[in-house]
């Protein structure tokens, strides 16, 4: 039985949402960029800006060199988050297996839904139409038998296209496409392939394993499979598949007061712990990054023996890493805590009763925070923080 | 400072101090060094400490100029180990320690020994003879379940009690508990028990395992120190000054629901199930019905496992899950061909005991499935 995977790609997701808020933006090229930072990178270019040659990740100075009159809008994370949730919710009505890859990229596995929603190509077309009607956004949509082919199809048909690649036709579809479209081909791999005279996916697919290993090293086998349209990876709707969860805080005014920074760290730990427990996960690897006001950064990481999910333990590790990372006498601009090696954390019963008290306390706090928000109950040490009421102040 | 000693004596003297000093750079850089003190009576002392465990080794040599220096334990031990089996001369010139063995000559930077902490060594009269294999067994059977969580300081060591010629060792991390009990001869007693930190316990076990003649122990309550002494080396350990939880209360006394399991078959099955486990914290589900035990494991990425074996069980059918890693560690400490596992319900502790031996038992809490 063939799988039926839909990939939905909202081109220039952030910029499109901003244009929906302000129609005048549809007529001019503009970019989304965080202007509070001295070295400004483009987060998302609008379609007109894209046509001008401006790309995501480009510095603003370069973008202004290409297009001197370009308008710059600051990011609005809450708007994107809300829109992302709505888009995900609509997709979830068609399948329980929906993977949100962020930035308006969604995979749906609609295998076996034919009796409910009709043939799969109709379901994909209906979904695209619903996004047009409900959100005034026209996503690029592709249906294929795996994630890879559907993703390549949306890349090729960008913006607003629609395609269905029949099962068994994956290799033929990929054959005439440029290797640039293949996931996993970055600038260095592309340069190497071009050096070998390989410009199209079909040329890469025709290499044998021996030739590919010589040319591409360890990544050869994965790339060959991809070039031949083989991708068994499932659509994951669980956080377990994500490599890490990251929380950061950009400080409005750079600080060098460790007490204040630890208070921010405490709040980040609470958010991280809450997120972990929500999905029944524990983390084993922790990394703290400090960005100083001169834009140099230091980071420290720690791997622990067991799954950690309690706020206090996350905070304790965070403090330990903070003390190790703090090696410069310069104000701190941003703190980022990353939790990785996430694993399903089965709760282990405790031998002694007093251990359960901690668990009960944590569970009660989670219940309250679930109902009234993260900041409903906070440790006293966080009261020194300004603007505590802003729930979106610590983006994940 | 200048002295000469043969390589094997120096290695013997350096072995324990360099073990204690090797991981101390994060605590205090000076503690990653060892102090070498050459005395007029032709004795050479090697000292190291990590603030919790301190070691002093005394060897005999030919001392020409008595003095004391501090030098990196790791470098010194590596160098000496690689020298041929000949006499080695240590000589201090300015701040350089010159090591000479046959035609090899090395100069190592030294440090001033003023900053090195003084190490307390109990007097000889405080020590009592003790059987090294008893203390080694006690530590071996319990050290695996010591907690790694520094927030639970009282669980980061082995509770050790010597009373009425019975040595008892207990350790727990809050989810499992191991208990060992052995009879001993002699008049040494620690009536109320002490908590020996994990690092110190490992050092004591090393000393006990290499027993070559003299083995003495001492407990100095006023200094909260536990000490072990062999012919060459004395280890003093600062005990954890905290109250060990009431472990007797959590050791269940089940009358029924006893299962007798063949150890080797179970061990092999568990090993196979663990190959498909997500992590060392993954669980294995026990389905026990009649005289059949079914072990099941699931990994979302790798697949599922199913193992079935014959056991002898006299209780109600039960489904219960345990941490695979915990079980494997306990099983590895069981001698004999069979052991018993007793249950009090799917949320209650299980008691594991060897069938022909009462000196060891373990309690393990189940996972919530």
How is this structure best described in words?
The complex is a heterodimer of chains A (396) and B (369). With 396 residues, chain A is an alpha+beta fold. Chain A has helices at residues 13-21, 47-52, 60-66, 77-92, 114-117, 120-135, 147-157, 170-174, 187-195, 201-205, 209-216, 220-227, 258-278, 311-325, 353-372; strands spanning 5-9, 30-33, 42-45, 71-73, 98-102, 105-109, 140-144, 162-164, 244-255, 281-292, 297-308, 332-340, 343-344. Chain A is built from 15 helices and 13 strands. In chain A, a hairpin with an 8-residue loop joins β2 (30-33) and β3 (42-45). The model of chain A has no long low-confidence stretch (mean pLDDT 82). In chain B, α1 (7-21) runs antiparallel to α2 (73-82), α3 (132-142) crosses α4 (198-209) and α5 (263-275) packs antiparallel against α6 (324-332). The A-B interface holds A 240, 282, 284, 305-307, 312-313, 316, 343-352, 355 and B 148, 151, 172, 174-177, 245, 250, 278-279, 281-283, 300, 321, 323, 347, 349, 363, 365-369.
């Amino acid at each position: 039985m063939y799988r039926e995977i839909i990939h939905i790609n909202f081109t220039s997701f952030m910029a499109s949402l901003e244009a929906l808020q302000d129609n005048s933006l549809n007529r001019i090229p503009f970019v989304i960029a965080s202007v509070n930072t001295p070295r400004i990178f483009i987060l998302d270019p609008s379609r007109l800006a894209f046509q001008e040659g401006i790309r995501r990740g480009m510095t603003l100075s370069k973008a202004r060199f290409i297009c001197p009159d370009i308008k710059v809008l600051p990011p609005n994370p809450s708007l994107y988050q809300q829109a992302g949730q709505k888009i995900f919710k609509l997709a979830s009505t068609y399948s329980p297996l929906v993977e949100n890859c962020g930035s308006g990229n969604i995979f749906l596995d609609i295998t076996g839904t034919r009796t409910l929603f009709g043939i799969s190509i109709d379901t994909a077309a209906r979904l695209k139409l619903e996004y047009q009607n409900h959100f005034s956004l026209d996503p690029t949509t592709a249906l294929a038998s795996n994630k890879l082919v559907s993703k390549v199809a949306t890349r090729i048909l960008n913006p607003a296209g629609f395609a269905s690649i029949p099962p068994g036709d994956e290799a033929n579809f990929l054959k005439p496409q440029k290797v640039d479209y293949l996931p996993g081909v970055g600038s260095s791999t592309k340069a190497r392939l071009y050096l070998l005279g390989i410009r199209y996916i079909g040329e890469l697919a025709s290499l044998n394993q021996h030739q590919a290993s010589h040319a591409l090293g360890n990544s050869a086998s994965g790339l060959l499979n991809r070039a031949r349209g083989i991708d068994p990876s499932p659509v994951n709707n669980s956080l377990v598949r994500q490599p890490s969860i990251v929380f950061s805080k950009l400080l409005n005014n750079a600080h060098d007061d460790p007490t204040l920074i630890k208070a921010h760290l405490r709040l980040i730990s609470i958010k991280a712990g809450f997120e972990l427990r929500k999905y029944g996960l524990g983390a084993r690897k922790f990394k703290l990054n400090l960005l100083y006001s001169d834009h140099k950064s230091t980071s420290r990481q720690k791997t622990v023996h067991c799954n950690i999910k309690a706020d206090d333990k996350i905070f304790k590790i965070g403090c330990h890493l903070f003390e190790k990372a703090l090696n410069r006498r310069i104000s701190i601009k941003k703190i980022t805590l990353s939790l990785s090696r996430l694993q399903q954390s089965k709760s282990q019963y405790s031998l002694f009763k007093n251990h359960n008290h901690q668990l009960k306390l944590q569970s009660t706090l989670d219940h309250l925070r679930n109902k009234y928000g993260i900041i409903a109950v906070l440790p006293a040490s966080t009261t020194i923080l300004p603007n505590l009421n802003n729930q979106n102040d610590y983006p994940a | 400072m200048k002295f000469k000693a043969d390589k094997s004596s120096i290695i013997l003297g350096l072995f324990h101090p360099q073990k204690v000093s090797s991981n101390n750079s994060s605590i205090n850089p000076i503690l990653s060094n060892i102090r070498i003190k050459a005395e007029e009576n032709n004795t050479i002392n090697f000292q190291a400490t990590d603030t919790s465990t301190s070691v002093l080794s005394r060897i005999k040599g030919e001392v020409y100029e008595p003095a004391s220096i501090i030098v990196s334990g790791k470098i010194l031990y590596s160098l000496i180990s690689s020298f041929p089996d000949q006499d080695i001369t240590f000589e201090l010139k300015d701040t350089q320690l010159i090591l000479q063995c046959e035609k090899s000559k090395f100069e190592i930077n030294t440090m001033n020994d003023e900053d090195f902490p003084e190490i307390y060594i109990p007097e000889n009269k405080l020590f009592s003879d003790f059987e090294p294999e008893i203390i080694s067994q006690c530590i071996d059977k319990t050290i695996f379940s010591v907690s790694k969580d520094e927030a639970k300081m009282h669980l980061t060591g082995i509770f050790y009690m010597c009373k009425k010629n019975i040595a008892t060792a207990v350790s727990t991390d809050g989810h499992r508990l191991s208990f060992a009990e052995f009879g001993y001869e002699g008049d040494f007693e620690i009536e109320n028990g002490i908590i020996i930190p994990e690092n110190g316990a490992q050092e004591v076990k090393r000393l006990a395992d290499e027993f070559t003649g003299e083995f003495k122990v001492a407990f100095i309550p006023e200094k909260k120190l536990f000490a072990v002494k062999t012919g060459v080396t004395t280890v003093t350990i600062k005990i954890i000054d905290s109250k060990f939880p009431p472990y007797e209360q959590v050791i269940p006394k089940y009358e029924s629901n006893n299962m007798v399991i063949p150890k080797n078959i179970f061990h092999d099955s568990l090993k196979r199930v663990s190959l498909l486990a997500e992590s060392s914290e993954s669980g294995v589900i026990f389905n026990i019905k009649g005289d059949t035990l079914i072990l099941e494991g699931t990994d979302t990425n790798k697949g599922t496992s199913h193992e079935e074996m014959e056991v002898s069980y006299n209780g109600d059918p039960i489904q219960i899950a345990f941490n695979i890693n915990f079980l494997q560690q306990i099983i590895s400490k069981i001698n004999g061909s069979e052991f018993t596992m007793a249950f009090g319900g799917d949320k209650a502790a299980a008691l594991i005991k060897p069938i022909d031996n009462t000196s060891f038992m373990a309690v393990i809490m189940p996972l919530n499935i």
